[in-house]
Each structure stands twice: as C-alpha cells, then as structure tokens.
C-alpha cells in the first residue's frame, strides 16, 4: 500500500469563508465544491507529510497547518492586504526557513514558510 495524499479537513458551517484566505490571499484553486465541502488545492506534485509537534519552534505555538510557498514575502504582503493579522514573524529561523504565522477565518493557526 502507498499513501497518495493527506487532506486536512476543517469543520465549519461557514465554508464560503475559506475563499478569502485560501483562494484569494494564498492563490489556491477551488478543486471541488459540493456545498457541504469545498476543497482548495494545486495541481503541483507535493510531498505527503504529517507532523506531530510539542511546539512550533522558536518557542511558538504549534500551528494547525503549515503551507510552503515559493515566495514567503509575497505571501506575507497578500495576507496583510487581505486584512489577516500576522501573529508571528516574518522570521528567518535557524533550521533554514523564513516564515510567519497567520490565523485563517476558522481560527486555525497557519505557518506559511519558504525554505531559504
């Protein structure tokens, strides 16, 4: 058996609220919308990963999601323009990433990062 994909499922009655953060600010595509579930993603090939942590590193809260982007400074500017408050960073971390934390419309802490 081979794991092909891992999908994060966030429970909400406000499914439409995901659009402003995940599609408009992050630039993901809506891949599926059945009314009761909306899935955003990319056609990029991505590594399958799941992490377990006692903290987020640098004595930060453990994020609910980590999203790697190609340009973290552009992502930061898009989040600011969209009105999402930045909770941590931007920071150049000793393990080789530049990142920031932001909360999505569902109060999930999202770690947005790029490898340096």
Structure, explained:
It contains two helices and six strands, in the order αβββαβββ. The protein is of the alpha+beta class.
Summarize the structure.
The protein is of the alpha+beta class and 116 residues long.
Task: Name its key features.
16% helix; 2 helices; 116 residues; alpha+beta; 4-stranded mixed sheet; two-stranded antiparallel sheet
| Distance between the first and last residues' Cα | 34 Å
Give Rg in angstroms: 14 Å
* Strand portion: 25-35%
Q: How many separate helices? A: 2
**Strands ordered across the widest β-sheet:** 3-6-5-4
Helix content: 10-25%
Task: List strands and helices in order, with pairings.
Blueprint: H1 18-25, E1 29-33, E2 38-41, E3 65-68, H2 72-81, E4 86-92, E5 97-103, E6 109-115
Parallel strand pairs: 3-6
Antiparallel strand pairs: 1-2, 4-5, 5-6
């Amino acid at each position: 058996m081979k794991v092909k994909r891992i999908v994060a499922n966030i429970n909400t009655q406000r499914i439409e609220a995901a659009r402003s953060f995940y599609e408009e600010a992050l630039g993901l595509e809506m891949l599926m919308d059945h009314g009761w579930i909306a899935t955003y993603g990319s056609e990029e090939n991505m590594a399958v990963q799941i992490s377990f942590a006692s903290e987020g590193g640098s004595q930060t809260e453990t994020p609910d999601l980590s999203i790697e982007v190609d340009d973290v400074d552009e992502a930061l500017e898009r989040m600011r323009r969209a009105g999402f408050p930045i909770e941590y960073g931007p920071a150049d971390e000793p393990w080789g990433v530049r990142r920031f934390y932001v909360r999505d419309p569902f109060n999930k802490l999202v770690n947005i990062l790029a490898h340096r």
